[in-house]
Amino acid sequence: MSDQRSTMTTQLAIAIALHQLATVVWVGGMFFAHFALRQSAQTRLAPPQRLPLLLAVFNRFFVWVWIAVIVLWASGLWIFFGVYDGNMRWYVHVMMGLALVMTALFAYLYFVPYRALAQRVPAEDWTGAAQHVGTIRRIILINLGLGLVTAMLGSAGRYLQ
Ligand code: HEM
């Protein structure tokens, strides 16, 4: 293998590993939040216990989501332009489009309903807090669906004609 080709392959391996890890963190975290945490908290805890717990969970999880978003874009663009010079097939373009929608939805969730939730919980306004949790839940569900499709495209897209 020539030196140049082996450097490119190493770069690709590092970028794909980071890309894949960030996917696991973001999409796996949303799957857990929706299908395990939410349903258990809903059935087991009353609003004054449930809503502060959910806020504390979001405080921690959303930091990791920002890190995952940055890593996904940086590694994805690195593979796309740095390794393949922008010559990639349709499924990568679809991935980028879906990632753009997911990033925009997450930014909205973070700056609007999550910010509002962080104000409602200390004020012990459980009705208002529950409404914002409802909005966050719907956005996370949409992003979870988009994230699963994006992850499938990323790994299986290259085998499609
Ligand atoms: C939520 C966002 C994203 C998710 C969940 C995601 C997921 C994935 C997955 C699972 C892979 C397969 C990795 C492997 O080979 O094992 C992949 C590959 C890839 N992704 Fe993403 N990705 C996202 C965003 C992006 C963005 C923003 C870009 C920007 C250009 C991008 C560009 C790429 C490229 C170029 C590949 C390599 C495709 C190939 O070699 O066939 N991705 N992605």
From TrEMBL:
It holds the Pfam family CopD. Residues 56-153 form the Copper resistance protein D domain. The chain crosses the membrane at residues 12-37, 58-84, 90-111, 140-160. The lineage of its organism: Bacteria, Pseudomonadati, Pseudomonadota, Gammaproteobacteria, Chromatiales. Keywords: Membrane, Transmembrane, Transmembrane helix. The keyword Ion transport does not apply. Signal peptide: none annotated. It comes from Thiohalocapsa halophila. This is Copper resistance protein D domain-containing protein.
